[in-house]
Amino acid sequence: QAQLVESGGGLVHTGGSLRLTCAVSGHDFTLYAMGWFRQAPGEEREFVATVDWSGRVTEYADSVRGRFTISKDNGKNTMYLQMNKLKPEDSAVYYCNGDPRTFGTATWYRRGDFLGSWGQGTQVAVSS
After folding, report:
1. Which tens digits make up the pLDDT trace of 30-42?
2. 3-class secondary structure, 89
3. Most CB within 10 Å of its CB: which of 12, 22, 25, 47?
4. Could you give the CA distance from residue 114 to residue 98 in angstroms, rounded to a whole number?
5. Which residues, listed in sequence order, are joined to residue 92 by a DSSP beta bridge?
6. Considering only CA atoms, which of 116, 127, 122 is closest in space to residue 38?
7. Which band of pLDDT confidence, cut at 50, 70 and 90, is reported for residue 26?
8. What is the pLDDT of residues 85-103, one digit of tens each?
9. Long-range contacts for 59-68 (Cβ within 8 Å, ≥24 apart)?
10. Burial 45-62 (b: 16+ CB within 10 A, else e)
């Protein structure tokens, strides 16, 4: 069972930046597509960004495209989300997860099945 641990959240002002980290263990990270998701209070969890198994192909939600960058370091079993030009509407708990199938594309998340259980997430708060 893969273990997923998110970190890097915090409180920033509008326009600020944060870099989230997802550390993965118990799993051959190099073979799997991964992604970031978020959940605001009272809302359903939503897709933010994904990267294919190779780390070369990405996909973003319209709301974050051009501001967020997802990356995958296969050598470190770690995934990142660089978030720039943050807005109050980006405030949420951010989670990482992966495709349970090997060699997945960046659209894996549309199937709705995930590699591991959802972790604690990391809180991002953006003040106006």
Report:
1. 899 999 999 999 9
2. helix
3. 22
4. 6
5. 124
6. 122
7. confident
8. 999 999 999 999 999 999 9
9. 59/106, 59/107, 63/89, 64/90
10. eebbbbbbbebeebbbee
Instruction: Report d(CA 26, CA 80) in Å as an integer.
Output: 18
The structure tokens listed for 104 are 């997945």
Angstrom distance (rounded) from CA 67 to CA 79 = 17
41 neighbors 54 (Cβ within 8 angstroms) = no
89 phi and psi angles, rounded to 5 deg: -70, -5
> Looking at the predicted structure, is the pLDDT value of residue 116 above 90?
no
Token pair for residue 12? 């920033």
User: Is the pLDDT at 82 greater than 80, yes or no?
Assistant: yes
- What is the SS3 assignment for 81? strand
Tally of CB atoms within 10 A around 111: 11
